[in-house]
Design goal:
The protein has 636 residues and is mainly α. The chain is built from 25 helices and 2 strands.
Length: 636
């Protein structure tokens, strides 16, 4: 019976979208009930698969219309759920379930909610279908549904400034990524005459031809666009900032992970390309650049959700860097951080939504002192901030430490100095992330409460419930990491590296061996963050972060700005969300010193982030061409 669960979970989400569009505008109870019923059903069916798939190592396959392979050739659309698919399926269903609950309270002041929930369910069904499908063209179809549902949800509050512009950018750049995936799929089909990913993996195990290398480059670049790695990141900040926060949480928490999943599925299983050092190096460079550019852009933002958007980009850089290592350690760290990012970034976006819901703004310069009025939201935010900054005992600390270990191990075993630089970059980015959230914490929740917010109160329980769940998981997944590794991470990493089981379950026993596909045994990654060396490293990171905050908060002569004497406006220092009357150091930006010292860097990126979609499209096409050319040259 369980072999039907993946298909039923996806189909019922799409069916609910259809029913909500018909009846949702007529009854609030029916609209909310159908949405909660569909997302709950998808979550329950997905969790039911943990036993057979994660614990027993089974791979569940399902052929639509019973179109099983004929004479050893796949001609039908198959759904195949291994531990990697299920790992991401759990993230998808849990994220959309929590978002649907949050939406009941958060969206109650909006109009046309029937359309909102229809799009919401279409988005959830497409992302879940993407991770469960075993057919590469069906995967593309799900990418298309996901893209257009995301565009519509970005523009849902079209009266908000920038909503339509952000949706247009998302549409154009997303379509370029989708077209890249489609072109790669077409090239693969022209060569292999099949769309089934298990059979493609079997055929391509004999070696990559020039055509298949180009197809690989196009597909990887397309999923890079869907992951919003630099330089494909340009629509993300705008979309995350203007979309309803319940959708921003989904965008950051899971939609970009669909791109990460697609990349892992392609490089580890379908093309089995991680043996090529050129592929590892290319992904590592993109990951390192993404994490650094994302955090430096976040550090200077004054809009809460936009700041979180750039941090989403930065954290995806960690994931891409980890999976680029081609090792069980790196892959485990990447999967763990992907899960943790879904939790802590989803939590942070929900906190930002709570602030917007009660105050009507997410401008850091117009907030402050909200911990007095919204203590529960404050506690949840502090947990999320600690997790994303990599502080123990939160989950972000455990996954980042595994990634540090993985990168440094790669540097030692490969003898490549570039990996040493990437390790240092990852540590610096973590410090800058901590510094950034010190700024947000002071700006939004501490300091002087503004008069216009005297009547602010805590958000409703229906909004707090998802925040509590995610905050609790941020702590639990860090403290009981061995259990998370045993039941989720190890099976998913093992499935990514043992391709034979995936092929045999879909195509028949012995098919992989006949194709010459071998698998490798993955050893579980052991880790304890009670090691004294870990705490020594943590002390060093905190010390450096404190030094950065102190040193960058000085004027040109090295003296800390105080309220005695008014500094020039462009050098005014942001502190606690307070007006200058209450401030100990002034009032506009804690990191003006950093921006001043890095003015050349920021001038370049200000020019690059022109807001012109033609420019962004050019960056995307050029970067895709570079990826394809590099792989074509070095993988042949």
């Amino acid at each position: 019976m369980m072999q039907h669960f993946p298909v039923l979970a996806v189909m019922l989400l799409f069916l609910a979208a259809f029913l909500v569009e018909i009846f949702g505008s007529k009854s609030k109870v029916i609209r909310n009930g159908l949405t909660l019923l569909a997302t709950t059903n998808a979550l329950v069916m997905t969790l039911a698969l943990i036993g057979p798939v994660m614990m027993n190592g089974e791979v569940i396959s399902y052929w639509m219309g019973s179109w099983a392979p004929v004479s050893g050739y796949a001609i039908g659309i198959g759904y195949e759920v291994d531990a990697l698919s299920l790992f991401f399926g759990i993230l998808v269903t849990a994220t959309f379930w929590l978002s649907s609950i949050y939406s009941i309270g958060y969206m109650n002041k909006d109009h046309h909610l029937g359309h909102y929930y229809t799009l919401f369910l279409m988005l959830s069904g497409s992302v879940l279908g993407l991770v469960y499908t075993g057919d590469i063209f069906n995967l593309f179809v799900m990418v298309e549904i996901m893209t257009f549902a995301s565009v519509a949800l970005t523009a849902f509050r079209n009266e908000s400034e920038g909503a339509l512009e952000a949706a247009f950018k998302y549409l154009v750049i997303g379509s370029v990524g989708s077209s890249s995936v489609l072109a790669g799929v077409a090239l693969l089909y022209s060569q292999c005459h099949t769309l089934n990913m298990a059979q493609l993996a079997s055929i391509l195990s004999g070696g990559l031809t020039p055509t298949s290398v180009v197809a690989f480059g196009l597909i990887v670049a397309g999923f890079g666009v869907k992951s919003y790695i630099v330089p494909f990141h340009t629509p993300a900040a705008d979309a995350y900032a203007v979309a309803p926060t319940s959708i921003s949480m989904v965008f950051s928490g899971m939609v970009n992970k669909a791109g990460v999943y697609g990349m892992i599925r392609m490089v580890y299983i379908v093309f089995r390309a991680m043996d090529h050092s050129s592929v590892q190096m290319l992904l590592a460079i993109f990951g390192a650049v993404t994490m650094f550019v994302g955090v430096t852009m976040a550090l200077t933002q004054h809009e809460f959700k936009r700041l979180l958007a750039f941090h989403s980009i930065s954290q995806i850089g960690y994931v891409i860097t980890a999976i680029s290592l081609g090792s069980a350690l790196g892959l485990t760290g990447g999967l763990f951080h992907a899960m943790n990012h879904t939790l802590f970034k989803g939590l942070l976006f929900l906190c930002a939504g709570a602030v917007l819901y009660r105050t009507g703004t997410t401008n850091l310069d117009k907030l402050g002192g909200l911990s007095k009025k919204m203590p529960q939201t404050t506690i949840c935010f502090l947990i999320g901030a600690g997790a994303i900054s990599g502080l123990p005992p939160f989950n972000g600390f455990a996954s980042k430490w595994i990634i540090y270990q993985g990168i440094f191990t790669k540097a030692v075993t490969s003898g490549n100095f570039l990996y040493v630089l990437i390790t240092v970059t990852a540590l610096i980015v973590s410090v800058m992330t901590l510094a950034s959230f010190i700024k947000v914490t002071q700006a939004v929740f501490f300091g002087q409460l503004r008069e216009e917010h005297n009547e602010v109160k805590e958000v409703p329980a229906v909004m707090l419930f998802p925040m509590y769940i995610m905050a609790a998981l941020c702590v639990v997944c860090g403290v009981v990491y061995p259990l998370v590794n045993k039941y989720l991470l190890f099976p998913a990493a093992n499935a990514s590296l043992n391709v034979g089981d995936y092929i045999d379950k879909m195509m028949g026993a012995g098919y992989a061996e006949a194709s010459g596909v071998s698998s490798m045994l993955v050893e579980p990654v052991t880790f304890s963050f009670w090691d004294p060396m870990v705490w020594l490293l943590l002390f060093g990171i905190v010390f450096i972060a404190a030094a950065i905050v102190i040193l960058l908060g000085t004027n040109e002569r090295g003296k800390v700005l105080t309220s005695g004497g008014t500094p020039e406006a462009k050098y005014a220092t942001f502190f606690s969300g307070e007006e200058e009357l209450f401030s100990h150091v002034g009032g506009s930006d804690l990191f003006w010193g950093f921006k001043k010292n890095w003015k050349g860097y920021y001038r370049v990126f200000t020019d690059l982030h022109s807001g012109i979609v033609t420019d962004y499209t050019s960056y995307t096409v050029i970067a895709e061409a570079i990826i394809v050319m590099c792989l074509f040259i070095f993988m042949r």
